[in-house]
Amino acid sequence: MSDPVDPPKSHGRLSIKASLKPRDLLEEPRVVRGAWTAKVITLFPEAFPGTLGLSLTGKALDFGLWRLETIDLRPFGVGKHLNVDDTPAGGGAGMVLRPDVVDAALAAAAEGTPADRARWPVIYLSPRGKPFDQATARRFAACDGITLLCGRFEGVDQRVLDHRGIEEVSLGDFVLTGGEIAATALIDATVRLIPRVLGNQVSTEEESFSEGLLEFPQYTRPTDWQGRAIPEVLQSGHHANIATWRKAMAERLTKERRPDLWRAYCAKHGRDPNEDQEL
């Protein structure tokens, strides 16, 4: 008989108990019904919430605007030592996470979640996955929640990925020692798009990638620093001119630094990517 699996560890405000003590009107709000939830399967649950517990995402987590649940992969291991990995078939260096172990953890994570992947994506963080971008973050934020599988060693047995129809997502063309850092970045990019998390939702509409462009340069006081002055147009108070300048700067930066984004932006708006060489 196998040992019982430890229950998932949750973070944030998850329950409200009845009390005879009156609530302060300025007290934190109750947990939001149906709050967006991230379930993370990992060998290192202590890595969470990490930076997700700080600043605005941490405050939103405490307020119950979203939930974080970590599922320790180790208790699903097999044998006396709860092994979660084995040597690669065909030989080679490193170890591979076993399909039976990962499948058991995924089954536990699936409890209480919708079967429809459009409502609840299941993601394996992998450098060979589809690149993660702002559009993907918006898609994930519109879901009920998400399950993230953090890989380790040489990766995960392909059979469980195929069996579960898991979507693979990559943060970029580089390799990390594990998926925990990537999971944190993905969750942060997604959670900040959830209503009320940032407080000022307009800010998400003006930042990089919101329209397929990099963000325009930002300035603040002092007006003159180290002989460098804030552009006059930003001090003019003329909102139309400021908006025009910001759009032009966003286009210039995108064209100079991300030709791939610039070409996609021009194609979307029916423009020639080679126009306005002196943008």
Secondary-structure blueprint of this entry?
Blueprint: E1 9-11, E2 36-42, H1 55-63, E3 66-72, E4 85-86, E5 96-97, H2 99-110, E6 122-131, H3 134-141, E7 145-150, H4 158-164, E8 167-170, H5 180-191, H6 203-206, E9 224-225, E10 228-229, H7 239-257, H8 259-268
Parallel strand pairs: 2-3, 2-7, 6-7, 6-8
Antiparallel strand pairs: 1-3, 4-5, 9-10
Give a structural overview.
With 279 residues, the protein is an alpha/beta fold. It is built from eight helices and ten strands. It has two domains: 9-191, Alpha/beta knot; 207-268, Trp Operon Repressor, Chain A. Residues 15-29 have low confidence and may be disordered.
Keywords for this structure?
single chain, about 280 residues, alpha/beta, Alpha/beta knot, Trp Operon Repressor, Chain A, six-stranded mixed sheet, two-stranded antiparallel ribbon, 10 strands, about 30% helix, elongated
Percentage of helical residues? 25-40%
- CATH fold type of the largest domain: Alpha/beta knot
Please give the count of helices.
8
Low-confidence stretches: 15-29
Strand order, sheet with most strands: 1-3-2-7-6-8
Named CATH architecture of the largest domain: 3-Layer(aba) Sandwich
Full CATH superfamily name of the largest domain: SPOUT methyltransferase, trefoil knot domain
CATH C-level label of the largest domain: Alpha Beta
Q: List the domain count as a whole number.
A: 2
